[in-house]
Design goal:
single chain, 489 residues, alpha/beta, three-stranded antiparallel β-sheet, 14 helices
């Protein structure tokens, strides 16, 4: 015969496991190397918004003088204008204004590469510096957008930190890059170092001749002009992506890593709530709930000391499997409704998970409460025992709302459900066995008391008969004169 209490306990355990399973996080792939590089470039862009020299003093005046001397403006820069440039922060979005925004972001990429190089990282460039100076403390962009020197290096000397000029960053076609660098080398104040995409530079630093690089004539002219090329790997692609990341940051406030994680999360959510994903999750949830419910039923029957009813175990497992699969179906329905209301996929998923998890926990708690009420009604438990057990079961029933957020998986929650309910059943069985033993002892004591009462009545009756015999003896024989007894040999 099926025990309704055991069935409800097994069903409650299955509902708890379904609530936990529905809240399991999605397994997302690790961060891609490309996203890590984009994050590096974006962080450099944020850093370059800081003032070139944020403090006032001789170092500030020296940097302002260098910026003024390096400008390509026809009318030059006033000293106060140059001073304001080196001490003022820059707006992040100023890097992507103008007709060719990737030109300025290319400068940021080059600055990031040289910062890594001077920090001891492996150079990602062709024909990098043979000697990396140890006194370079910072790599900055010139605050003057019309400067002859795109990069500025701040070096530590005995006299303090000095700002020195670097080279020019060039992107575009082979013809544009070659003509710009040749003109730069022939014009005073520009220098002869050019930072370009690695596709323009051979490993030995010579101009690369290829359809996507320079022609033979362009390469020859660059050599004759004495231009020194340093090729940054994927410079133009990274500059283009940095423009996109800055634009995206203005729209969503995210950095490249967070944005990639959000995109991957939404892709994973879409896959999880597709038809195949829902089916897979339903099978997994049903299996987890069924296994837990079957184990709870077995353990409770074993703890009760009775014969294991496999039909009851199968019934419990089947009911829990329905709960497990139904919770996934309900989760999918709530998710679709939430996305239909305009919620973002990750928000809709959180709403669906929480709603279904709370529903499953409520069902489990109500099922346990009904089981305890039934036990009181049938006389198998007192009201106080039922209240204590109900509070314990409620605590276990609410664990799925807390433990998944702490990173606790379904196996641990299943072990808690099985162990907790087995311990409660074993304790109740022990209490029932003790109560039966005490009742049996009381029955034995009552029977012994009845026997003693009957024995007392028999002794009293025997004493009365002895007294009657003595009276008859005295009437017949007369009163006894000497009642002392002597032993006669």
């Amino acid at each position: 015969m099926r025990n309704p209490t055991d069935l409800r306990a097994a069903a409650s355990a299955g509902a708890s496991i379904a609530a936990a399973a529905i809240q399991q996080p999605l397994q997302t792939p690790a961060q891609s190397p490309a996203a890590a590089v984009q994050a590096l470039d974006f962080a450099e862009a944020l850093y370059q918004t800081q003032p070139l020299v944020p403090w006032a003093g001789r170092e500030t005046a020296q940097a302002a003088q260098l910026v003024a001397e390096s400008t390509a403006r026809v009318r030059g820069l006033l000293p106060e204008t140059a001073y304001r440039m080196v001490t003022s922060p820059r707006d992040l979005f100023s890097f992507i204004t103008g007709p060719h925004p990737s030109g300025k972001t290319a400068e940021i990429v080059v600055a990031a590469e040289f910062r890594d190089l001077h920090a001891g990282a492996e150079p990602r460039m062709h024909n990098g510096p043979r000697y990396v100076s140890s006194n370079v403390v910072d790599v900055r962009l010139s605050p003057d957008t019309a400067s002859r020197r795109d990069l500025l290096f701040q070096v530590r000397t005995r006299d303090g930190v000095l700002t020195v000029a670097g080279g020019q960053v060039k992107t575009g076609s082979g013809q544009y890059v070659s003509e710009s660098l040749i003109k730069m080398a022939q014009t005073s104040g520009y220098g002869r170092t050019g930072y370009v995409d690695a596709r323009f530079v051979n490993l030995d630093g010579s101009p690369r001749i290829a359809p996507d690089a320079f022609t033979a004539n362009q390469a020859q002219r660059l050599r004759e002009a004495g231009v020194q090329l340093r090729g940054i790997l994927d410079l133009e692609e990274r500059a283009r992506l940095l423009v996109e990341n800055i634009v995206g940051h203005g729209e969503d406030g995210l950095d490249p890593v967070a944005r990639e994680e959000l995109v991957r999360l939404r892709d994973d959510i879409a896959a999880a709530y597709g038809l195949g994903g829902v089916a897979d999750r339903a099978v997994g949830s049903a299996a987890s709930a069924a296994a837990t419910s079957a184990l709870v039923s077995l353990m409770m029957q074993a703890a009760s000391g009775g014969r294991v009813d496999m039909a009851q175990v199968a019934h419990s497992a089947a009911g829990a499997a329905v709960w497990g699969a139904g919770s996934v179906a309900a989760d999918a329905l709530v998710y679709e409704a939430a996305t239909g209301m305009g919620l973002a996929p990750e928000v809709a998923r959180a709403v669906a998970q929480r709603t279904v998890a709370v529903g499953c926990c409520v069902i489990g708690v109500v099922s346990d409460a009904l089981a305890e009420a039934n036990a009181v009604r049938e006389g198998r438990a007192t009201v106080m025992d039922a209240l204590s057990a109900g509070a314990f079961k409620t605590t276990m029933g609410l664990l799925p709302l807390v433990m998944p957020a702490l990173g606790v998986g379904v196996p641990v929650l299943a072990a808690v459900q099985i162990g907790g309910r087995w311990a409660l059943a074993a304790l109740r069985n022990s209490e029932a066995s003790l109560a039966r033993t005490i009742a049996e002892d009381f029955e034995v004591a009552a029977a012994l008391e009845q026997r003693m009462e009957r024995m007392g009545e028999t002794i009293s009756h025997l004493q009365d008969e002895c007294k009657e015999t003595d009276r008859l003896f005295e009437r017949v024989m007369g009163p006894a004169r000497n009642r002392q007894l002597r032993l006669v040999k």
